[in-house]
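Hello again,

I reread your note about wanting to compare the complex against the isolated chains. To keep things tidy I'm splitting this into two emails, and this first one only covers the full assembly. Below are the input lines as submitted, including protein chains and any nucleic acid or small-molecule components. They are followed by the predicted structure of everything together. The single-chain runs will come separately.
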Amino acid sequence: MSMYLNTIVVLFTGIGWIFFLGATVGILRFPDFYTRMHAAGKGDTLSTMMILFGFAAYQLHHPDLASLLVAFKIVFIAVLIFITGPTATHAIMDAGYGSKIDHWGTRDGSVSHCLIKEDERS
Amino acid sequence: MENYFVLLGTALILLMFLTLVRVVKGPTAIDRLIGVNVIGTKSTLLILIIGASLGRIDMFIDIALAYALLNFMVSLATARFFQRNRSAGMIEKEEVEL
Amino acid sequence: MFGFMTFLLMFGLWITMSGKFDLFHLALGVISSAIVAMISGDLLFQDRQKGFGYRLLQAGRFVQYAVWLVAQIIYANMYVLKLALTTKKMDQVLDPYIFSFKPHLKTPFAQFVLANSITLTPGTVTIRIEDGVFLVHAITGPAAGDLEDSDVINGMERRVAAVFEPEILHQIEAGK
Amino acid sequence: MKIIALLVSVALGVILLVATNDLPEWGDPQSPASTHLSRYYIENSMEQTSVPNFVTAVLADYRGYDTMFETAVIFCAGITVLTILRRSHRRKKKDVQPRPCREGQDIILKSAARLIAPMMQLFALYVLAHGHHSPGGGFQGGVISGASFILLSIAYDLEMLLSRLKERTIMFFSGLGVLIYAGIGAICLLLGGNFLNYSSWSKILQVSEVEARSHGMLGIEIGVFITVTFIMISLYADLASGGEMDEGL
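Full-complex prediction:
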């Protein structure tokens, strides 16, 4: 039983680590702010949630009430990250777009359209 | 299992240092903010890992929860601040002052 | 009514967090939940039109939606992982652009859920919502078509609408 | 000028480094703190105060004076910022620049803040109430609780916060916290004990002296909590709006 549980913990945390690796490499390698934000927003949220679920599974080693409540708390943090992660991503993205960070891309038409709209407003 | 958590923590710190490269390189302030945000979220996990490797995860969970909440606050506040002064989007010149 | 619901939710959260069931801590929990319900009871529920039972129904449907969303998030992460690790030259593979669209969803909370879902699904991040118009940054490989025209966003909007605003489902079907 | 500043800071750093030589070794078991004080707290705090977390016992009971003046320092900081920054008259309308960011329109931030702020407040109260058993207490809970209000004012704007909490209310409560702390100590005097010796409270609360110390600690933590919460809100409101109280971050 304990063996299976440990396998689950290692599996979850390991997968979380791999996704975090993807996010990190994405943040380092992607060419502009917006694409980096893609890597950060998605990878950060999921990898944190995965590793948290791994910890929640680790709490099940001693299935008494106190450990279960701690596991619930960890799941609560995961839910919180599920809400806050995309929201923070959006806030940073909005700040970057608002301060007119240059956009890297080949399809100039749609982009310039949006930026002109931004200019008119301010 | 404690050893595994120490290993996991080391691996996370390694990747956090890699993310720190983006914080140092920039080029704009908001690029740095991405790195800081990611590192902050992962610090929540590091606190939990310390708790698990010490065997007192029930103590550290409160700290982790508080950290997660405050980190969200920090990201929002900094994003809002940079949204306000538009100079954040400019690529910073090399002007290091003592 | 909604203040009382906030109180109940907060007290449930308190019991989960506290883990102490003696009278003293439970009394503190009741007091704390009452304080929170008093000072921010108007925050938790935005839409006051619907009743209590309907909320539970929505919560049940939302859990279903969340399961689907988690699958999408995993897919999105594998996409990012593939992009980050396997591409040799970024400028040949990446093709980012910004588009805008106007969903049929009306309530702010449904828009919030849709925006965060867009952020978490593969290839798209919501930049901002302005007067109900979503501004979305998309990143695709050259082989993939426009996310804008594809069924991705529409399908997601339909799912969100099925959870929160079932009455506008036919509009989405008609508008497609 | 910069060179002078550099020299001064380097000199200060060297002096501090030299001074650390005279401090006891880090974690030295023979240092006075470890041989007398720590052992006393570790051995006696549980039976004297019935608080399992003896950090809380040391902070709120054995060193109650210290914590009281820390709270007072926080209060003074809030008052100072208010005195320096707060301007009662508003800028003329034409001077006000149109805001670059679309504050108060952001549905995503608003919805997230509405979801998270009540949870943060409850968590803050939980941290406050469980300071006896887990890491936490008035300062930590106060910071989280203050942050929840700041979150609301970031997501909406400062006016929304100030319509929920009037400036007058904020300052009233931040003073009230210090008053609660000092008042609990002063009532000990009236009951015939020493200042901040909560065991005197046993006469009023009808519990044993040890229990009374535990409850007294909770009381002063509540005082700290209130002060820290409202001073944080006041600091944010003053600093973010430059004393104008018209627009937030």
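For quick reference: Chain C is about 60% helix and 10% strand.

B.
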